[in-house]
Structure formats: C-alpha cells, structure tokens
Structure of EAL domain-containing protein:
Amino acid sequence: MRKSVSHSEDDLVFLDEAVPPSDNNTLGASKDVWQVMIIDDDADVHSATTFALSNVEIQNRPLSFLHAYSAQQARDILANEPDVAVILLDVVMEQQDEGLQLVHYIRDVLHRAEVRIILRTGQPGYAPEIDAIQQFDINDYKTKSELTRIKLYTVVTAAIRSYEQICTINSSSRGLDMILRASTELMALQTLEEFTSGVLRQIARILDVPPSGIFCIRETLQNQETELFVVAATGKYQNLLNFPVSTFEDAQIGNTLSRALNERRNIYGREFSALHFSGTASSNFAAFFRTDRPLNEIDLRLLEVFCSNISVGLANIMLVTSLHNSAFYDSLTKLPNRTRLKEIIDDNLISTIDKPTTLALIDIDHFAETNDTLGHQFGDMLLLSVASRLQSRLGDRLIVARVGGDTFGVMGDDIQVNPAAVLAQFERPFSIDGQDVQLSATVGLVRLSEHDGRGVEALKNAHIALKRAKLQQRTGYLYFSRSMGIDIRERVNMMHALRAAFEEKRLFVVYQPQIDMVTRAPVGAEALLRWQTEDKTMISPSRFIPIAEYSGLIIELGEWVLRQACQELVRIQRLGYPNFMMSVNVSQVQFRHPHFLSMLRKALEDTNAPPHCIELEITESMAMEEPDALIKLLDQITETGVSIAIDDFGTGFSSLSHLQKLSVDRLKIDRAFVTEITDSSRGSSIAEMIIQLGRNLDLDVIAEGVEDERQAKILTELGCPYGQGYLFAKPLHSDVLHDWLRTHQAN
C-alpha cells in the first residue's frame, strides 16, 4: 500500500509567463554538459521544462537543452548530434502516433541504443501499448500533469545515470548485449511473479554464477507497519517463496535488504549483493543474491545498469498489475468484479456446456439503511464478512464475485448454488466489532445450462430475476424464465416509444368534468394524460404511467401536465366560471422529487392560475408513507393556496389519527366501491362510511366512476356532494369541454 503524496510548490505548471527556452540548439555542444533534448510541438512545454531544470547539475555536470518542435526537426538534429543523453518526447504531436514513429527512427534507423527516452503526454487517457514501450526500450512514460519539478528532476537524473553507465561499459559489448537481451526477455513477461523470477535468472547469467536469491516487495500492513514478502526465489532460497523476510533464520538477509531500501542504493558484500530498484513505482522492491565471490568493477557497473533498466520494467509491471486489478477486481473484497465475472461466465459457457451450472445474484436487503445508520466503515466490514462467509460456507470450486455495492454473484454447480443453500448463509447474524447484525437477502438465479447467450446476457437475466424477486417478496428468490425477458424488452421498447412520443408532442391532456350531485352543475374537472400512437392506437395510462415513473420521465411529464391544466383553468375561468376547480394527479415519484414544491410554485407563477382553484390528487398509499416528511410537505403546499385530495380512498389502510394530521381537503371514493354500490351491498356501506368520515373531518367527498343514475341516486341519498364519471361526461378535449360547459350553462 502506498501513501498518496500531495503536490504544492513542486508542481510543474505550464504557464504563459514561464521562462522562454534558451537557444541551445547549437550542434556539437560541449561534452562537459548533459544534453537533454525536448521534442514537443507546444512551446510552453519547452519553457516550463527548461525552467524546472535550470541550474541543475547531475554528476557535477550541468544540463544543456536541444529543442525540436516537430518530428522532422528532431530527426534533423539527431542526425548531426551524437551526444544526446536524454530525450523528453511528446507522444502525440502532428499525428496520434508521431512520437512512437520517432522512437522507431531513433532506435531502428539511427541505431541509437544508448540515448534514454522518456515519453510524455498531455492526454491522461492516452497511453502507448505496453508492447511499444517494451519494443523501443523506453525509460519512462508520464503524463505532463504528474511530472512535477521534483519528479522531473528524479526521472531525468535516473535517465542520465543510466545513460552514463551504458556509455561507460559500452566497451564491454558482452555485458551490454547481455543486459539488453535480458531486458528484452524480461519485458515480454506479463506478471510480477514471472518478471521477478526472470530478474534473478538474468542476474545469475550476467554475473556467471548459479541462480540463488530472493526478490522481495515491501508492503504496508493493516497496523501501518511494513513487511518484506518474497515474490520470487531461486536456488537454496526457493522454499522461502511467499514468506515474510522477518521469519528467516538468517537475520542478515532481512537487515541487508532493509538497509538497501532505506538507503536507496545497492549493498555489496564479499559473497552477496542486495539490490535496490530506484524510481517511485519500484522503490519498494529489493533483491538479495548469493554471489559466493567478490564482484569486480565490471560486475558492479553491469549490475547498476541492469537495476536501472529493470526499474522501468518493474514500474510497467506494477502499472499493468494495478490496471488489471482495478479493471477486474473489487478494491474492497478483492473478489472478481462484474467485468471479470462476465469473462468467467463466458469461459464457463464454452468449457462446461453439459455441466449443470447456476449463477445467483445475492442482494442484501436494506443494506443502505444499515450503512447510513452504522457508518460506511462498519458497512465495509459487513460486506467483507458476507464475502468471507459466501466463500467459505457455500462449498469448494465456487466463483464468488462482487458485482455491485451490496450485490454478490455466486456461480457453481446446481447442487451447491441453490436458493436454500444461499439464503441459509443469512440465517445466523454477522459479528462485526462485537456487534451482531442480522441480515436478509434476496436472490435471482439463472440456470446456465438453459442459457444460450453470453456472460453479459446471463448477468442481465439474473438481474431481471432479482428485481422480480424483490418486487414479489423480501428474503425470497426467483429463477429467470424467458417470459421475464420478454416482459422487460416490452417495457424497454415502450419506455423509448413514450419518450419519443413526449418529445414529438403526441401526448395530450383531456379533462373529465366533476359535478354537483344535487344540482348537476359543473364544479370542476380532472386533468388526465393520454397517449395515442402514430397508428391511432390508444395506450392505457395504467400501462405507460408506471413506465414513466420507473424511467424518471414522469418528472418532466408531470410538470407538463400541471402547466397544461393550469393554462386550461385560466381559459375556463375567462369563459365565466370563476370558481371552477382543476384537479391534477401527482405520482409518488413526482411528490418525492426534491424540487417538486419549487416546480409547483413556478408553474402557478408562469400561468397566473389561481392556487385556490388547483387541487393535487395523491393516492391513499402515498398519504400513509413517511408521515413526518409528508405532513411538512403538505403544509408547504397548503401555504401556496393549492388544495389536496386523496385519490382511490378506501383501497388502502389509512390511520384515522394520521389522516387528521394531514393538510387534506377532499376524499375521493374509489370507483371500485361506486361500481358495486347498491342499497345493501358492501360497496354501499364503504361509500357511506367514507362520506360520513369526510363529514366528521370536515372534508369534501367526491365519487369517481359514476356510470348510471342508480349509483348517482344512492350516492346523493348517502350525502355525497360531488361526482365524476361517464354518467355526466367522458374525458373531453379542451375545445369539446368548453362546448360542454356552455351547454350545461344554458340548460
């Protein structure tokens, strides 16, 4: 684990006012300086780099800068300048791969193997292929933003030292050839274990001694102490692989390695060497090697060069490992993530076609509430405990992954991965910090033997089954069936069609009149949203409203309907109906939106609709949820002058004490009770009870779905003041509603 480093005054910032580049492009510069060539099409980069490295001396020699602003200019300079030590090269110049083409020219056309090349880019998302870095012997690769002054100095210093060492031992072609060959071979290795084992073998080859040593990495433990672990071992030490160095009988090994790391240099003994690998990404690596003889000057120089080169390889390996882990494994539990699980499923579908295998997605119920109540650190420990139990208790040869925040995936044979076995893991509480926490879970399962798609489709189907299981019952499970997939596709198609219809203005609002049951005079109307497709098919609101709520489109739709209703109310009142009321349905998704109240106020202000003539209808189930928050919101709505009606009243389980606390103005008798109404029926009794309740609570009551005179007569006798239904009028378009009102006014 590495601690993050904050940057402040050492940041290398490319400023307009930076010192302009010195005119150091004179060919054949003095060999008493290190020539550093900057190749970049951005003049500010040249300025900032020379400014950052001004007055710097390395090995008692100052730096001299050569400037090229294009690839061609760089070729011209390099063709005549043999003593360039380091090249700072922009990867992307005239073309996307211009930098790599230039590297190819330097290495393969000019055959300049000694010059050290550091790639830079201003595009954080762009990185050359690892193969290119390996092929062209590139020293380092950095984004310009991460090259602070200190880091730039460190990178250039390491590169110059590497250059000097290469030049010094050029006379020893055998050693140089061996190092280059070793570097090339090592760069082809992809894993840390392969790479470090290869380093030990190459050291033995360079020194011409038997391979006997260990390669270690220093890691930070949970108690913040550090420990060296063996990641590669050869010869007499091969049985120490994966052991901590602190457990060795020979304490000299650990002491020497710690000294090399702390002093950041190689330590040479009469019969051993402890090698330190420089550079930020590889500074936690060290190797102990048994030489059984003192090393000569050439050996020492070869090792110094080799270690310098290998540091780049280590950095690349660590980068690749880090990227691989980030891409395919969960950072908390270290389990495979969703991406990796998809690959595993794909491999399974190919290799075990006839083997009955099940994929289960396990979602922890109410985990968000637990996380919010007990804290995220407690929640992380809880997730780790769940992961551990799933791995250890469900059986061997299972794949356990974390595919979401509180969702785990388990894949294995049908016998091990079954609902009973999975849910049994949540029967016992989880002990976290001495506290027992009882969890429950919901499971969606897919039998892969019945699945004919790829891993991504299998995961999608498991999610569909999981969502269905959550809708039907908590602590339950469902297996995916093909009918589920068909339903989901139909919902998705309708969702896209609904959005397109809204954008193309194919949705419209109709208005169903509400009347006084005694006088039969119109007193208001309810605004209702309708959808007619291009082929004139009417889509029922019971089908598309839930989809609008699920997709979030209901927020835009609801505001549009409210504004349409307000504008229509203003028109009707201008026709001579000053007390006409307009009712508008509000969905639960709208009501819970944080900006609902401000949206309501803005709609009233923009349309000049009188608030006291606007009524919002909410369902009885909405009225019973989150009572404290609802009471506050209803009070705020009442302050605007808008009234509230409870729709479908009688279908839920309202608490009368709670109902008394709500700022509600009217109860709406559900059409189911109106349809069943007779002199002695249950519907009549419920309708009578609601009417009496409204009278006792000083609330208006309106019955919806009134379709014949008998229903109207009974409701009137029961004392219901208002009604709405086909007996009086169907939902009408705006112009038809105006004509209907004029007719009723004349009558």
Notes: The two ends are 85 Å apart (CA to CA). The longest strand covers residues 522-532. The mean pLDDT is 82. The CA atoms of residues 371 and 379 lie 5 Å apart.
